[in-house]
Structure formats: structure tokens, C-alpha cells
Automatic annotation (TrEMBL):
InterPro entries: IF-2B-related, IF-M1Pi, IF_2B-like_C, Initiation_fac_2B_a/b/d, M1Pi_N, NagB/RpiA_transferase-like. It catalyses: 5-(methylsulfanyl)-alpha-D-ribose 1-phosphate = 5-(methylsulfanyl)-D-ribulose 1-phosphate. Its EC number is 5.3.1.23. This is Methylthioribose-1-phosphate isomerase. Pathway: Amino-acid biosynthesis; L-methionine biosynthesis via salvage pathway; L-methionine from S-methyl-5-thio-alpha-D-ribose 1-phosphate: step 1/6. It is an enzyme of class 5 (isomerase). The active site is at residue 236.
Length: 353
């Protein structure tokens, strides 16, 4: 039994687990160019907010090595241009721009282009390592919050493969498996691209967690029939007031948790907070292509030309969130006051110290 990983970097080589092919094929691909990294993020080969940020950071470092100028100012502009390009690959997860901005800023501290190239790679590695540590800490806090609870529901994949390791919402289950604490996890399949059935179920099986698959429409009945005791989800962006964007269907679960009076937890590292925006209304929601809904495994499941609305994320309002689990601690309402207190004085996108 082991916890699967999705991103590795060794001597300037970036290798990712192709999450589009899971669970039937376990295929690792080497990303060699900025365009490869853009495409991997855009097509969900690498996905999940922290993993997108980590991959983009390595992508920027990869591309920087190939810029031939010796002039630091010119180099900085080339890196900025690359960052803007990668940053446009997906709009909702704030970890993407957070990581890119963090990398671009290290160029400002470099004395030469060669030193800047080195610093970029080092900073990408640091982001990767910090995320693993954050996720482990989130798992430990999550275990505390879930004390005495066994049956827990989740959606999408906020797991190890969506991060550096352990995941956010799934971290308590991985850590629980290590120490013999047993959970019964109910994983929503997560239409339309099945991150729940393809990824979460696979990932939890790899680390020996007891997981049961349900369709998204079975959530309410399952909460009743199986006496689900808590819901835990990841996040793509958390506004200053605690409103949280996550995979489409998360809002349904937040409403259900409220209706059934069970806790609804969000688990995310501080790099997922965007305290530059006041509320979830300002979070850009990605819309993806209609074929994700009109087709299944390449076969049409709707009349040709059907009108489609395919938002990839929704926003759970802060009032429905029982607590937000971060590596810096467990944040409880009132979020407007408690988020800045937990994250420190940071006022921008992402909030790692
Ligand atoms: C730790 S991952 C948190 C979120 O990014 C996750 O829950 C999610 O919504 C992922 O969406 P995806 O479209 O698969 O990138």
C-alpha cells in the first residue's frame, strides 16, 4: 500500500502522472516545453489546485533555462511573458498564479541571468516541498476534526495526486491509514469528468482506505442511508470572507450538510486563499467544452447540437462551511476576521509565508 504521487522533478526533468489515463493506465509523461506544461494543465493531465501550481512553477523554470539573453531585465520580461501564458491555462485555481508570481519575483533578487535560472528551479522545488509539508499538516488537523467520526463523504479528487503528496481533503484518510484509524469514505463520482470515480477511488484504494463510489445524485440518499457523519472537500480558491470555489457539485454537498446538520469542512493550503477578493462572487468560474457532457467515452449521450452549460466549479458560501482546515490551523467562522488572523498580514493571492 502506498500513497501515489503525480509530479517529480529531477535534474531539470519534469515528469507527471497522466491523470487523464487513470485508473486503467498508469502512464508517466515528460514535459519538455512551456507548451507541454500548458497543454498538460489545460487538458487535465495534471489537475487539482496545488498540483497545477507546482507543475506551472517547474514549467516556468524549464522554459527559463532556454532563454538565451544575458540581460537580466530582458530575461525578467521573458519570464513574465511565460508566466502570463501559463497563468491563462485555467482560471479558477488561484494556486496557479500564486506559484507563477512567486517564481517571477525571485528573478528580481538575482544578480545575473544564470543565477536567476538557478533560483527559479530552487523556488519551484521549495513550492513542491512546502506543499507536501502543508498537506501533511492539513491531514493531521483533519484527523483532529474528524475525531470520533468514521463515515465521511467527499467529491472530486483533493488527494495526493492533486498536490505534492497526501492531498487536502483526502489527507486525513491517508494519514489515518498509516496509523490504523479506519474511515468509510463515500466518493461522489464527480460528473462530468469523473475525478471521483477515476482518481479518488483509485488513489484511496492504493493506500488501503475503505472507499465506496456513489453517483453525485446519490449524495442525499447516501447521507441518510449510510449515516454519513461529515463532508470534506478541497478548494480551488477561497475568498477573504471564506466563500470557497471547488469542483462543481461542492455547493450541493454544502447545502446537504446544512440540511442534515452534519459538518462541512473545506481543506486547503494557504496558497489557495485569495484575500485580494472580498467574496466568492469575484471568483472566475471555468467553463469547459460541451462534449464533456454530451459525450461519454467518445459516444454521444445527448441529441447532437444540444445546448450545454458546463461550469467546472461552483462556490460554497462561507455560511455553509463549518471550518476551513489549513496547514496554519483550523479556521472557524467568523471567517472575515479569522482568515487574516490565521494567515498573517498577507493581502494578495495565496498566502504562504
Ligand atoms: C487539492 S485539490 C483541490 C481542488 O483543486 C479540487 O477539489 C478540484 O476541484 C479539482 O478540479 P480539477 O478540475 O480536477 O482540477
Amino acid at each position: 500500500m502506498s500513497i501515489p504521487l503525480s509530479i517529480s522533478w529531477s535534474e531539470g526533468q519534469l515528469v507527471i502522472l497522466d491523470q487523464q489515463k487513470l485508473p486503467h493506465e498508469i502512464e508517466y509523461v515528460t514535459l519538455e516545453t512551456l507548451e507541454d506544461v500548458f497543454d498538460a494543465i489545460f487538458t487535465l493531465k495534471v489537475r487539482g489546485a496545488p498540483a497545477i501550481g507546482i507543475a506551472a512553477a517547474y514549467g516556468l523554470a524549464l522554459s527559463a533555462v532556454r532563454h538565451e539573453t544575458e540581460d537580466l531585465e530582458t530575461f525578467f520580461h521573458l519570464v513574465q511573458k511565460d508566466a502570463e501564458y501559463l497563468g491563462s491555462s485555467r482560471p479558477t485555481a488561484v494556486n496557479l498564479v500564486w506559484a507563477l508570481q512567486r517564481l517571477a519575483s525571485v528573478v528580481r533578487n538575482a544578480g545575473s541571468v544564470d543565477a536567476a535560472k538557478q533560483l527559479l528551479a530552487e523556488e519551484a522545488v521549495r513550492i513542491h516541498e512546502e506543499d507536501e509539508a502543508s498537506c501533511r499538516q492539513i491531514g493531521a488537523y483533519g484527523l483532529e476534526l474528524l475525531e470520533g467520526k468514521k463515515r465521511v463523504m467527499t467529491i472530486c479528487n483533493a488527494g495526493s495526486i492533486a498536490t505534492a503528496k497526501y492531498g487536502t481533503a483526502l489527507a486525513p484518510f491517508h494519514l489515518g491509514a498509516e496509523i490504523g484509524r479506519e474511515f468509510e469514505v463515500y466518493a461522489c463520482e464527480t460528473r462530468p469528468v469523473f475525478q471521483g470515480s477515476r482518481l479518488t477511488v483509485w488513489e484511496l484504494q492504493q493506500s488501503g482506505v475503505n472507499v465506496t463510489l456513489i453517483t453525485d445524485s446519490m449524495a442525499a440518499h447516501t447521507i441518510e442511508a449510510k449515516e454519513v457523519e461529515a463532508i470534506i472537500v478541497g478548494a480551488d480558491r477561497i475568498a477573504a470572507n471564506g466563500d470557497t470555489a471547488n469542483k462543481i457539485g461542492t455547493l450541493n454537498l454544502a447545502i446537504l450538510a446544512n440540511a442534515y446538520n452534519i459538518p462541512f469542512y473545506v481543506a486547503a493550503p494557504s496558497s489557495t486563499f485569495d484575500v485580494s477578493i472580498g467574496s466568492g462572487a469575484e471568483i472566475p468560474i471555468e467553463e469547459r467544452k460541451p462534449e464533456e457532457i454530451t459525450h461519454f467515452a467518445g459516444e454521444p449521450v445527448a441529441p447532437l447540437g444540444t445546448k450545454v452549460f458546463n461550469p467546472a466549479f461552483d462556490v460554497a458560501p462561507a455560511r455553509l462551511i463549518t471550518a476551513i482546515i489549513t496547514e496554519k490551523g483550523i479556521i472557524k467562522p467568523e471567517y472575515e476576521k479569522n482568515i487574516p488572523a490565521a494567515l498573517g498580514a498577507y493581502t494578495g493571492k495565496g498566502a504562504h509565508s
